[in-house]
Every structure is written in structure tokens, then in C-alpha cells.
Amino acid sequence: MKTFLSVWLGVILFSLTRSDAAVRTVTATERTITPIYLTLGKSTVLRFREKPKKVIVGNKNYFNIEFIENDLAIQPLGTSTTNLFVYAEDHTYGFSLHSNGNLAADDLIRVEWGSPISRQAVLPHDARVRSIGKQIKLTSQVQFRVEKIVSLHSKNLIWIEASLLSNERHRIRINEIKISLLESGKKIEPRFICGSSYIEPQRLNPCRIFLTRASDTHVLRIKFRNLNSEILF
After folding, report:
1. Is the dihedral of CA 96, 99, 101, 105 positive or negative?
2. Which of 19, 143, 209, 229 has its CA 20 to 30 A from that of 5?
3. Are residues 87 and 124 part of one domain?
4. Residue 14: pLDDT band by 50, 70, 90 thresholds?
5. Which structural domain range is residue 96 located in?
6. Spatial distance between the Cα atoms of 138 and 221, rounded to a whole number of angstroms
7. How far is CA 174 from CA 142, 178, 231, in A?
8. At 224, which CATH number?
9. In terms of domains, do 125 and 225 share one?
């Protein structure tokens, strides 16, 4: 009888643990890498509000990934830990995959997007925000993205919210990236500020580009390792 009760209590506790961990909602930002827990013999589904277009997996040999509309189904093929980047229409999501036989593995994860900057910053009433959402590859491993333009007329400030994503193994010095703008046909070198002196690998690195004035169109030129790129917005 005691053995039966012990087994029954164990089943109840296990069920409660699984129900808590099986379905959850996470908020991704340009500064976070979200952990995903998987187990052998099961698939975990990531459900996005936008349709994923491409994924980059650190170790392809240990994970099988399928695209199903706005979902990604991930099935581990072995015990491993690696990173995963999901490229969608408007955002790039970063995850760390953990397949270690964890009983409390995820079944379904609803992925939301939320910018910590927009949540924390309280802008004055005269602030204007224009969403851009354009990205360009500086190299096969380095991507630059223009998120939005913010204008503060009360302080005569205009800046671009941007981000850099590097899939290289080593970090990159920020001074290796040269930024210039074309305004009314004139080339200017705006103030370019990032959160660190380095672009860290396998993560989104937020940065800002300060403009001298507002314009309907901008041509942003980026030079990196003797390669030139342009974004028109």
C-alpha cells in the first residue's frame, strides 16, 4: 500500500511539473537570448506572430528543424547545447537550445517581441517615432539592421535605433565599422554609439546613430573590412 501511494504521488508531482513547464510564453528582445529546453523523442514548437524565413543553428548535427507556417518544430537528435537564430520579416530572435534529457522540457513556446528600450524610456509628448525595419548583410556572418528613427524636437535630437548581429567566432571592434550618411547629396559622418567597444558574437548588439536633421529619405553607408553597403530608408 505504501509503495502504491509513493508511486501515485510521484506521478502526480511529475504531472504538475510537466504541465507547468510544457507551455509558456517568452518575450524576445534585441538584447536577450532565450533558453529552450528539449528532450529526446519529442518535438518542441516555437510559435511566432510573424513567419520565420530562415534559421541558423550552431550545431546542425544534433537538431532537426521544420517550418510550419508561423511555427518552428525542433526535435533534438542527441544530447547537446547550442544556439539558434531565427530570421523573420521584422525581427531576429536569439535562442539557446538545451537538450539534456530534462523531464521538464518545453512542448509549446509562444514567442512575443518586446523592446526593453521602448518599455523603459518615457519620451516627451513631442517625440516622433518612425519604424524602418530594414536590414543588410555586411558580410556572410555580420548583419546590420535599422529598427527606427526617433525625433525629439524639444531637445533638437534625432537618432537611428539600430542593431548588429555577428555570427563570427570572435568579437569585432566597433571601430572596424565606419558609418556615413548622405544628406542632400553631402556626405557626413554621424556619431555612432554602441553599448560596448566590441560587437559580441552570437548576440544582438544595439547601437544608435545620431543625425543632424530630419529628412524624408536617408542613405546610410556602412564600410566594414573594405566592403561597402548601403541602406535607403
Report:
1. positive
2. 19
3. no
4. very low
5. 21-113
6. 11
7. 12, 9, 19
8. 2.60.40.1240
9. yes
Q: In whole numbers, what is the pLDDT of the chain averaged over residues?
A: 79
Q: How far does CA 215 lie from the centroid of its chain?
A: 28
Contact (Cβ atoms closer than 8 angstroms) between residue 195 and residue 207: yes
φ and ψ of 5, to 5 deg:
-65, -40
Residue 101 has pLDDT above 70, yes or no: no
Pairing of strands 34-38, 92-99: parallel
Indicate the pLDDT class of residue 133, thresholds 50, 70 and 90: confident
Instruction: Determine contact, residues 86/92, Cβ cutoff 8 Å.
Output: yes
Task: Give the CA distances from residue 62 to residues 40, 41, 107, 196, in Å, rounded to whole numbers and listed in that order.
Answer: 10, 13, 18, 33
**DSSP state for residue 171 in the 8-state scheme:** -
Same domain, 96 and 192: no
pTM value is 0.47
- The whole-angstrom separation of Cα 179 and Cα 192 is 7
For residue 2, being part of any structural domain is answered with: no
> What are 57-88's pLDDT values in tens digits?
988 889 999 999 999 999 999 988 888 999 98
